[in-house]
Batch of 3 targets.
Target 1
Amino acid sequence: MNVSLRKINAIIVLKFQTIMSNTSVILTPVLALVFAFAMRHLMPEVDVNEAGIFFSTGAFVLSFGLIFNIAIAGIAMSSSPLAEEKEKNTLRVLMTSSVSGLDYLIGTIIPPLVILTITNLLLIPASGIAYADVPLLSYLVMTTVASFISLLIGYVVGIFSQNQTQSALISMPVTLLFTSVPVIRFLQNDLSYLVDYTYTGVLTNFASTLFAEGQYNWNLFDTSVLGAYLLLSAAIFVLAYKRNGLDR
């Protein structure tokens, strides 16, 4: 399938304007930064390691901010604008023009991915952590892959939503499931092993390892979990796209 860079650039500009004009969507990454900054200054400084369980305020704040930004903002940034365009019939007009589905997908996924990546980088100082203490390459790879997974999940939600209200209702249990990961890990030890099998659980482990061991080493388990979620979300998106298309 041929792609047109000119059409993709035009869609990128349009999508940036759509996201920036949607207050409920663009406020979510801002709130992730505000909450991380506030929690860092309100919570006491704690670094404990008892009975094999490590807790650090910095790690908790960073993982909270990442999950808030990636799971909540990521899903909302793809699901809500897609539902809004279907609601206002602007998507049907766009898809009946010379814009292909691939042009549209590439053009619509770049703006939220850029916003999420910039926010993920700003969360490091907002959590009270120096950039020198974070392996930036691993951090960028892990957070970008996780952001991409959230955007794909959001597109699936948007495909099955007819308007923004439906989009919010459908995405609520999904975001609740993935954002409850840090709380489950610390409050329910019996269930904490299940958290490791979620992509947000991998993010939590990554943040904790930075403080507990001073560095993060990629391992087969984390790579497999991220890869499995990426493939599964992509497969579900393709099936949903083939079944419903984007504008139905």
Target 2
Amino acid sequence: MKAVCWMGKESIEVHDVADPQIINPRDAIIKVTRTAICGSDLHLYGGLIPTMESGDILGHEFMGIVEEVGRGVKNLKRGDRVVIPFTIACGNCLFCKGDLWSLCDNTNPNAHIAETMYGYSGSALFGYSHIYGGYAGGQAQYVRVPFADVGPLKIENDLPDDKVLFLSDIFPTGYQGAVNANIKPGDTVSVWGCGPVGLFAIASAYMLGAGKVIAIDRFPERLALARKVGAITIDYSKDDVSIIEALRDLSGGVGPDSCIDCVGIEAHSHSAAGLYDKVKQTLKLETDRPFVLRQAIQAIRKGGTLSIPGVYGGVLDKVNFGAAFGKGIHMAMGQTHMHKLLKPLLAHVEAGDIDPSFLISHIVGIDQAPDMYAKWQKKEDGVTKIVIDPWQSTINPTTDGRIFPTTTRTLVP
């Protein structure tokens, strides 16, 4: 089969590899019909997540058709259409039973690596380094899904793949980011980063009753989509913009009730602090660039809630934790507890409350995937979200995958 493989920093190739096989009774083999490149895949592309190995198959956002199941899988059969959550959970441990699915104790065969770095291991992830289990990802024609009796969500409607694919990660991740922000009716919420997770966080904030959402980014295509979702936007790249002052002005002088950091490890800034982070990360004196986190702690009102769905990988420098303590803010973060969110969010899609495909800018074949990684990292061609058909070599070749201007899409059908 064909698969998108990580070959080293900023090196992605499509290879012919062996088809996956059933290894354990709780496995299933899925024929992938749609997959996508996630913004967090760019952290792998940029070499920022350790323990990747040459030849690793990428991809944690995917869906498809059940091809084969192990003898322990009784809830699925060949031909079922399923969306696969990016976190892998056993369903039986203390954390799974407590609805903390992304903290599963039993699915990461490389837990000792994570324990060395973090003290404990969370759940394994598809296609996301050997810290998180070394499982092959779904940017391929077939994928092995472990613990298939627990994770896959059956799609028993005729909605097209593009409308349900993002239940595999970015819609639930943005939604959990908004839930963790403790939003009350009428609250003012600020969201850093208008990539896919940020856009779903904005939409989810309104679903949870926010009165005003302020979105911060620098790319026109992302800011346009944020306005379409209903946000007031701030372009932080403008020379005369102070984010802290702008957020105070837009929140009655007290700061936002809730702040959501959807950026994480690769925050960007032209300021001296941003350049300082860039240099330290390049010299491997710092793993993450926490510029947005510093800014959010500074901006949030006293007693507010800071939610962090953006991915952080390691050690942070010069984060004003004294400010967070002094203001008495609440903080919530972590991987998405996918398994408890899939069915409720599918119900929203089925009811027509939201069309998650609104942010797709490019649909490509599998052989175009390496170029799309490079293009998205460089923020070229107005990329907002890339979907891959693994059974087509090339799609939309005359437009390099671009389907049509994203501003023509709508959030609600």
Target 3
Amino acid sequence: MSADSQAEVDVWKHLADMVHEKHPNITVTFESTAFQSYYDKLNTQAASNSLPCIAGLQAQRVPDVGKLFKDLKPLYEKDTSFSLASYEESITKGLTQDGKQLAVPYDLGPYVLYYNKDMFDAAGIPAPKPGWTKDEFLAAAKALTNDGKYGYAADGTPDMWLPYVLSIGGDYLKDGEPDLTNDKVVEGFSFVTGLATDEKVAPVVPATGTANWPADQFRNGNAAMYIDGPWQLINAKKNVDFTLGLATVPAFDGKSVTTMSGTGFGVTAACEHPEEAWKAVSVIIGKDAQEYIANAGRGFPAYTEAQELWYSTASVDGAKEAIDAALETVDVYETAPKWNRLSALLQQYAVEAFSGSKSPRDVLTQVQQQVSQ
């Protein structure tokens, strides 16, 4: 499973212990890898025939690594204690491929705006609310940029700027393939890179392309806002000494559309003990585990009955209002084959767009050409 902090590792280890507690003859040994390299590791393990029996699968990675997972339907159809209908339909569908249910989700969530409420209060600016506009966002970002601090932080990973493309009416796929060079995609990408090059309200992205760099800028107090998913709440709460808030991505002409993501657990195709693996999966995505995840703040539960618990334990300003509002217009975030590579290329080459050394259109064209080869 991927994990980017000790807090996440602790959650996954607890779930592994829950399996052994319910099924003493089954032991789950938890292994973690940082999200940025997790899916490369899965492919490497598959090539060396060393895949574990159980692995995490994000919906956006299904086109790239879905073939490494078994269809769970024959396994859970024999399990009378399990019902797929107990989980959010949008994300269960996102974890299918060619009619096969490759994983059962433990979380989902729209990408929302994290903000530093203390910085807003110090600047005398009202905290953002669902429906706030592009102009209000820009005014706030400018007011919050001073003394070496910035109003916003972003990098070139698609999660950071696709909500802006969608909010201005763009689409990044055409006939199931990446379409990065159409005018709306260029406009949305240019809006975000322009926050660094033109508006000067976001820092220039470092050439090293460090993973989770915008999150680090936010948590270190260097930027007042950034975009991320609800699953990062646990890391944020563990690592900040200011008051957190959540809001929606700013609206363009009254329209705010964000992407969503979600991850589940599946049984790998190479597993020699699929029945036992399913028993373990049924525990770590089951009701008790989902309530534990909700209490830990690890993610917005895909198990619908646990969602209210997440809201009550999250205790973050604007969380329910922001997520409820975002889910009303959310895009399910379909992806195409090679999405993992596309994301890596965008993170690498977008550095030039954020520095102003290359135009946003030229960067997108360069990535489009490489993923089309």
